[in-house]
Design goal:
273 residues, alpha+beta, tt1808, chain A, six-stranded mixed β-sheet, elongated
């Protein structure tokens, strides 16, 4: 990505097209709990992964007011049954209003289900994430793509995705030579990269042409770098212009001095004659 304008053009080019959902934004439905009594179990690895990935998705999809990004809140998927819920780490819903923020997401009220769901593995949830949740998300809730990823570098790398085949069978999504998966529904590449300094194996999205999607912090850093480079270039230009101005002044003074010498020489010749 050369400039923010270049990214903006690509962003508009690659953003998926989808219909508007049939429901309406629903912040809260009475009697449906929006939090549980369980203590927060996310590790620093998971927090880094969730924060980074959600920020990238939010930044990329910010231009469309009808894409909602949910982070670790309840999704209720069967009206009237408060036991039918899940709480994925990150999910993406197309066709619903981005705002207002919801306490929970109610599929029947919004008229839509998430198109993609991401779970980041932990010791307590990994088995459930790899097995029961695959069918739950794809068959029961109607999610189009479901992904799991292991963010801890000291554990075996694991990144997988599932979707339904045309015959409604659950199939694992293909990976490229580097282990990346192309999300057809999001129209994004999904690949992980290892960060030795933090010990986090970060799953990150990029555009179909491999252009990376930066986080807000990374984008701000790039903006500051660009501003610094611009200031340095202006300073170098000003210094060059100052040197040029001094050189022009020096040459002017030399020309004036030469002209004076010529006049003195001419006067001397006249006196000699």
């Amino acid at each position: 990505m050369d400039t923010l304008d270049d990214f903006s053009i690509k962003q508009k080019k690659y953003i998926p097209v989808f219909p508007k959902a049939s429901g309406k934004p629903t912040v809260y439905i009475k009697c449906y709990p929006f939090e549980d009594d369980e203590p927060m179990g996310a590790t620093g690895f998971h927090s880094e992964q969730i924060t980074t990935f959600s920020d990238q998705l939010s930044r990329y999809f910010a231009i469309d007011p009808h894409i909602h990004i949910g982070v670790d809140n309840f999704i209720y998927y069967q009206e009237g049954d408060i036991t039918k819920f899940v709480a994925p780490d990150i999910y993406v819903v197309f066709g619903v209003d981005k705002y207002p923020l919801r306490r929970s997401f109610y599929t029947w009220a919004e008229g839509a289900a998430p198109v993609a769901v991401f779970e980041f593995l932990s010791d307590s949830t990994a088995h459930h994430d790899r097995n029961q949740k695959v069918g739950l998300y794809l068959n029961d809730i109607g999610v189009q793509e479901y992904y799991i990823h292991q963010p801890e570098m000291d554990k075996r790398s694991e990144f997988s995705g599932w979707q339904l085949s045309p015959s409604r069978e659950i199939v694992e999504m293909d990976k490229d030579a580097e282990g990346g998966i192309f999300s057809e529904v999001l129209n994004l590449w999904l690949r992980w990269e290892e960060h030795v300094e933090t010990g986090v194996r970060l799953l990150r999205p990029s555009l179909p042409d491999e252009t990376p999607i930066n986080t807000s912090i990374e984008e701000e850093s790039l903006r500051i770098q660009a501003e610094n480079l611009h200031e340095e270039a202006e300073e170098r230009m000003a210094a060059a212009e100052e040197r040029m101005a001094k050189e022009i002044q020096r040459r002017k003074e030399m020309e004036e001095e030469i002209e004076q010498l010529r006049m003195q020489l001419a006067d001397a010749k006249k006196e000699y004659k």
